[in-house]
Specification:
The chain has 384 residues and is of the alpha+beta class. It is built from 14 helices and 15 strands. Helix 7 crosses helix 11. The relative contact order is 0.14.
């Protein structure tokens, strides 16, 4: 029996230095792969993120990719409220106190954290080695905080041991949301809803359609002129959001629109010709991901534009044979009304300074879905 070659890690700073075959092996559908990380890297986000990739190797053979990014996180997103208030005041004198430099494992705007591994390589075996490499990397980058971002409970058996062996603490994150897509289109989806949700959704759609006709279009590779209509709608919706992590650029939309994975659902006012809503979807294997939306908030809420988008997106997803519709984090009230199921996600965290680590770990025990978002207050929080 030949001895198993040891695992090692090396760092690269660009997707361009990683073989596409390794991406394909480590990030197969329905995961967001090379095309996704390449678009982010080229989207002029340098003022927000510094991307890097840990390449896991067994001997000389690459066997995994761990995407990471460095970010100066606004303290409001990471500190307990009382501490955040103090640091905001102090930050008026020392601006660096308003931010927490953090090394994240994962992607800034993917719904779930993923370490891409070749078949036969177990996350439980590589996680301790990877965290040790992250610790060195974070210190070199001046980042006192390490966060394994938004990992699903299906990976907890592999990652929970890091809490004992490396001293990490767990922090509940905003849950993901998913729908099962039935065959038979939107009507079949409606029939699968509870009677109260079905009635309420039909009523919203009826009220919206009474206000005016919207022309629905599904297309790929929108023109530059159309992207100039799409991006302001994205900015409107971004500005309305409760939680702001990444600020995407027109360049991102230009790059992602060029990918064959990307589809745009568009709603245009038939009377005025104005674009009033869009949904950017990714079709990856059997999954459709509702990635970003944009709504014209100049229209009254009675237009229920989000629900009009969902009607079109589910109809299309069903028609192309998708079985899973993923809608991301936040915006939970509408998603619960549409009977999305909640997908528990966890951050695994470590602060270099012991007293801050203990403080954050203590606060983390009090964080639940209800404390993260009022719309989740009545949802059962999974025990860990």
């Amino acid at each position: 029996m030949q001895p198993v070659e040891p695992l090692s890690i090396r760092w690269v700073s660009s997707v361009e230095t990683i073989a596409s075959a390794l991406w394909d092996a480590c990030f197969p559908p329905p995961l967001e792969g090379l095309w996704w990380y390449r678009a982010l890297e080229r989207s002029r986000l340098e003022s927000q993120f510094t991307f890097a990739y840990a390449i896991l190797e067994r001997g000389a053979r690459p066997v995994g990719i761990a995407p990471t990014f460095l970010m100066d996180v606004p303290i409001d997103l990471v500190a307990p409220p009382a501490i955040a208030t103090i640091l905001r005041v102090a930050g008026a004198v020392l601006p660096r106190l308003r931010y927490q430099r953090t090394l994240f494992v994962g992607s800034p705007c993917s719904d779930e954290g993923t370490i891409g591994l070749r078949p036969g390589i177990a996350l439980a075996d590589v996680a301790p080695l990877l965290h040790d490499a992250l610790t060195v990397r974070a210190r070199q980058a001046g980042a006192p905080m390490i966060v394994w971002k938004d990992f699903p409970d299906t990976l907890s058996a592999a990652l929970d041991p890091l809490c004992a062996s490396r001293g990490l603490f767990k922090l509940a994150s905003y849950p993901g949301t998913r729908l099962s897509v039935p065959a038979g289109g939107f009507d079949a989806y409606l029939q699968a809803l509870t009677s109260s949700h079905r009635h309420n959704l039909r009523k919203k759609l009826r009220r919206s359609k009474e206000l005016g006709a919207l022309q629905a279009t599904l297309l790929q590779h929108p023109s530059p002129a159309l992207l100039e209509e799409i991006f302001p709608l994205f900015l409107q919706t971004y500005a309305k959001g409760k939680t702001k992590f990444e600020h995407l650029t027109p360049k991102f939309f230009e790059l992602i629109a060029a990918e064959d994975t990307s589809y745009f659902v568009l709603l245009r006012n038939q009377q005025t010709g104005k674009l009033v809503a869009f949904m950017l979807c990714f079709r990856i294997g059997s999954r459709v991901i509702n990635k970003f939306i944009g709504l014209d908030y100049a229209l009254s809420g009675q237009w229920f534009l989000y629900f009009r988008l969902v009607e079109q997106a589910i109809s299309w997803a069903s028609a192309v044979g998708a079985t899973d519709f993923q809608s991301g984090q936040t915006g939970y009230r509408a998603k619960l009304d549409l009977e999305h199921r909640l997908v528990p996600l966890t951050n695994y965290c470590q602060h270099r300074h012991p007293w801050l680590h203990r403080l954050f770990a203590t606060v983390a025990t009090r964080i639940t879905w209800a404390t993260l978002d009022d719309d989740l207050a009545q949802q059962p929080f999974p025990s860990h």
